[in-house]
Structure formats: C-alpha cells, structure tokens
Amino acid sequence: MAFTDLHKQFPFFNKTLVDTINRECDIITVPHHQEILRKGQYVKVIPVVLKGLLRVYTTHDDKELLLYHIKASESCVMSFAAGIKNGTSEIYAQTLEDTEILLLPADRLKKWLQQYPELNLLFNSQYEMRYADLLNTIENMVFHKMDERILNLLHDKAALTNSQIIKISHQALADDLATSREVISRVLKKLENDNKLVLSHQTIKIL
Known about the structure:
This protein has 207 residues and is α+β, with helices and mostly antiparallel strands. The protein folds into two domains: 5-115, Sandwich (Jelly Rolls); 146-206, Orthogonal Bundle (Arc Repressor Mutant, subunit A), CATH 1.10.10. The protein has helices spanning 3-9, 15-24, 77-84, 106-115, 118-143, 146-161, 170-176, 181-193, and strands at 26-30, 35-37, 45-51, 53-60, 63-71, 92-95, 99-105, 165-167, 197-200, 203-206. The protein has a four-stranded antiparallel β-sheet. The chain has a three-stranded antiparallel β-sheet with strand order 1-7-3. β9 (197-200) and β10 form a beta hairpin. The longest helix is centred in the middle third of the chain and has 26 residues, at 118-143. It is elongated. The termini are far apart.
C-alpha cells in the first residue's frame, strides 16, 4: 500500500512506520461471512480493517453474543491483548462483508510500539472505544427489554452501513443478542405492528 493511502487512513503514521508495514506486513481480502479468528486460537497477527466490517462475538451454552463491530481504520483490542503476550483469543471474529485487512505480526508488535510511539495511538483509542461498546452491551442486556435491544442494535447497524435498510436474517439478530430466532421473530412482528420498522425477506427497514 502506498504511503499516501495508508497515511490518509492513519494520519498519525509517519513514513518510516508505513515503509516498515509495507515491507513486513500482509494485506488480505476476506469474503463476507468468513471466520478469521476463533476462541482458543493463538493470535499470531493483529487485524486492522482497511475496508469492510468485522463482527466480534463470544459464545456460551451454544448461544452467541455480539460484543462490538470493527469498521475501517479500526483494530481488535482483544486480539491485541492476546497477541502481545503470545496468548490465545477469548473471542470470535467474522467478516460481515468483503473485508480488506492489514495483518500486523504479533511477534514484532512490542518492538514496533517502542520504535514507533505513534502506533500506540491506534490501540489506545481502540481501548476507549471498546470499553464504551462493552458497557453499552451490558447496559442493554441488564436494563432494556428485548424490543429496545433489537431497535438499538438495528440503529447501530444502520449507522455502520449508512442505510436504514438492514440486510439481516432473524437468526443473525438472535445470534447477536444471545436469544432464539422465535423470540426475535415475535418481537419484530410486534415492532412492525407498532410502525417502528418494516419486515421483508432477509431485510428490515427502520422507520
């Protein structure tokens, strides 16, 4: 990737850091709905999204729970935390669309963080964002009813895709919210009757 392209996306990266990234890192394109990281897997590279969207989630008793999304110019602090100590992942990560990812080698990251202090800006900002995301997830689970949780999630997805029409199945919503498809379908129908949204095949339009 040319200096001007990477510097435009990460203006705090200097030319020396960009040259190092170009020389020692890989950039891959992963098709949509592909798993790129599993719980228990050793983290050898830290993903930085250049284009596209990732879904980060955890599982318990065969249920999934969305933790946060990673969009362009963002990285995964959970992967960073595991990779920096040569540990295993505590989360799963999956592409939600065709996604271009910069892979930072975990075994060189400690040295780079000392050599290029500006790299710390990327991960420090991500810690603040993900902390807020996780607090929001906990707040929704504890203090909001399912209809509010669904609407909040749909509004978040609309903001991510810049569209009021969200392409998503009832099962995918159930996975994000750690519930059953039947519960999601029932609540969505009620929300449609209340004129909060319009349901179509594999799509939901927020009103």
